[in-house]
Structure formats: C-alpha cells, structure tokens
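Here we describe the complex-level prediction in full. Unlike the single-chain runs in Section 2.1, the two entities below were treated as one system.
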Amino acid sequence: MTEEFKANGHCETVSVDDEPTAGVVGSQDMTAELCARAPIGMLAELTHRCPLQCGYCSNPIELERVNNELTTEEWCSVMRQAGEMGILQVHLSGGEPTARKDLEEIVSAATEAGLYSNLITAAVTLKRDRLEDLVKRGLDHVQISFQDVDAENAERIGAYPGATQKKLDVARWVTEMGLPLTVNAPIHRQNIHNVGRYIDLALKLGAQRLEIAHVQYYGWAFLNRAALIPTYEQTIQSIDLVENARERLKGVLTIDMVVPDYYAKRPKPCMGGWGKGFMNITPAGKVLPCHAAESIPELHFDNVREQKLLDIWMNSDAFNAFRGTEWMKEPCRSCAFKEIDFGGCRCQAMAMTRDPRNTDPACALSPYHGEMVALAKAEAAKPATEFVYRNPRNAAEALKTKDESLVPAE
Amino acid sequence: MTGATTSPGRLVVDRGTRPKLPPYLKLRHDAGRGRWVLLAPERVLTPDQTAVAVLQLCDGERTVEAIAAKLAEEYSAPVDVITADVLDLLQGLADKGYVKA
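The structure predicted for the assembly as a whole is:
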C-alpha cells in the first residue's frame, strides 16, 4: 500500500506492485488517466517451477505443468503486444522465473517493447554471469525474497538448505551492477517478530526498497493459513514499527507494506479494481485480472495462444465480469466507498462466502465479517500447524479435499 | 515538503545541490497517453510539464540555482518562486529515493 501519491503538485506516484492483491494504487484521477488507454502493469508468471516450497505461496494449488508452458516465441510476443498496447511495467515472476532457460530472450523482448522490467526471484539458482547478461539485455530492477532474517528458519520455511547465503550473494551483485534492489519480506506468524531486522537487512544490503508483504490468503497460503496467520496484536505492532521506520528512513529506503485484511474494518482495493490497471498471464498463457482469479469457477479465461492481448483486455468475459460497479450487490451497491475499495476482493468473497459478488468478508459491513475475524483470531491463538509445503505431491493431495465456506451472520 | 527529518544518507536538497536521476529511472514520453512518465521500480511517476522541465536539467552538473535561473529565463517567471518550486519538487523526489546528487 502506498501513501505517497500527491507528495507534491508536480509529480504524482502510482504503485504498480507485483504483490498479490496490490496491483495499481494511486490517486483516483491519476490512475484513471493512466489506465484509460490500457493497463499499466502486467504480471508474467513465466513458470510454476520453483526450487523453494514455501507454504505461503499465492500460486494456485493446481500448479501448471512444464510441457504446457508458453514457448519462448509466445512469451516474446506477449511482451511486444504489451508494449504496443501501452503497458508500462512487467513483473517477471513465477514460480521462479530463472527456471526458464530462455529468460534472457524474454527480457530482451521486454526491453525492445519499452517495458520497465522487474525480476521477482528467489535468487537461489541465479549465477553471476547470468545476471550480468540479463542486465546487459536491459533488465531494470531485481526483487529478492528472504523467507526470514535468520538463516535456519528461512531455510525451513522455504525448504531449501543454503538459500540465505545464495540470496545475499545475488543481492550484492545486483547493487554492484548498479541495479535497484528490492528486498521482499513475506510476513507471517513464523517471522513477524523479525520485521525490524528485515529493515536492518535491507539497509545493510543497500536496497532501494523493502516490501513488508504480509501474506495474503490465497492458493497455498489459504491452505496453510493456520500455520501463517499472526495475532491481531502482532499485526498492529508490526504495522506501527514499519510506519515509524518509514519516517526515520525517508530518502534512504522506501518501505512498501501490504497488510493482512482479516483484522481490517474496510476491505483492500484489490488490484486497484478488477480489470482496471493490471493483468496477469499464467505459465500456460491464460490472461487473468488477478493471480487468484482461477479460483472463481464461473469465469472463463482467454489465452494469448488464441487471442491478442488487447482483445482479451477489452472483451474477455472474465475481465468484464467485475469491472466497474454494475455487478455489485448490497451493501456494496449503495456504499459511499464503492469507487474506492471496489467491494474488496472477489476471490476472497468466493473462497469464504461461495459467491464472488458478495462483499469481501474483510469489510465490516459484510454479514460474514464477524465470523472471519473470529476464525482468524482462533487460528492465531492456537499453535501453528505444520506447513503443507508447496510441491506437486502435496498439490495432488490437497486437490482431493474440499474446504468449507463460512456461514453468514443471522 | 522539506521536512525537518534528517536521516543518515538522506539527501537534503539546497540551492547548491547538483541533482541527477539515478540510472534506473527512466523518463519517457508515452505517446499513446500523450504524457511524460518516469518509470521506477514498481512505480510509475507522472511528472507534469514543470517537473519534466526540471528533471531534464538534472544532469549532476547544474546546481539547483542554475536550474532555477534557466527556467526563470525560459518561462519569464520570478526566480524566487521557481527556486522554491524546484526545491520542493526535488526534495519530494529525493525522499522517495528518486533524485541523487
């Protein structure tokens, strides 16, 4: 979330964040102006392969198979089309984007298309000469995730021994090569005590930016919620700590924060509005309004293998389903905030109430809100459950079981 | 926007500062939207004509004073007003990490 737009009269800032649910955030006027022509951000999930197995992953449980991934030429075409239609920033993500052997060609295509490219990586398998090559091809920015500040805990969370040293090495190379570095800190109950030390780490590494990204409960993270959700008190404390640090570190380190919404009173403006400024391409080429949209069974997604990106943006049923405010039910429909938070998150409404048109249960006006908060508090009060690690075997297991939705208040 | 906070490493912009944009910022004219954009890590900044005029003069050589003088001449505006405006703009950008010296 950013609070910095309209910092002065001559230059506004609009966030185009890669974090799940964040999307495009800025003043209403400026986002409307920028997005009138085309989306400004695109998340390219190049692959679902990943050397790490973090239980907080926001990827869908059903991971895409390698042999169904887009080809090099298909990804390069996506980059060209994105540039032509007016997209400004691309997040090269996954899974682990460096697992694609053709990442170099995709980066070159993004550069030629005029896109500002952000590499979102776990960094454990990235070699120095490869990074150098990517920089030469025009890569603009690197974001590295750290599962914790303490190596042992980090490597337990990611299930990858030796990860921390590798990440530290890559972080150093990034700054040595003159690229801006973002430290990504996925925050949950098993590392929330280290938020302050994440700030120290980012400073030590010379990062330009730190993302304190409280886990959002989609995909694997939804499955692992009882292992991840912090208490209300921990959450508030960590938010205060970040807000103080922001003021202290003005001009030195930018700290972005995505806050968990289970304890909120108002829902997050998910993606900055459905189909408004952001699009997401899956490894197999499906075009989604957000990374979790496939969890809404009634939606059909068009594919870049069959249609042009611009055509999908303009005409796809999935994008039009929840664009604007016409689709809304009460209490959203008559709500004064409907143009501000867009009723929150459709996928969360789906996951918890079984109807994507309902108000996001994170909203205090939702009849499901009380139960959602109670559920979060109860889960956080119990000892953390064991992680269901994100891997194909656990995916197969998890897909067999069916979770239960909430019951609304009387 | 020139607040009172001073952190180690924070650039405090004054008349003698020689501002420049770090290499990872890209000032581009977006033809489709008919406006300038400044691209940064996971950010799009939207400078208006004034900001663009200032940013194009931030080459690490010119001082803020020189930039203001040049703009005052070009736009036939009082140099004091322009200087205050330029300082305000650059401090705001410096505090986001987008202007160095």
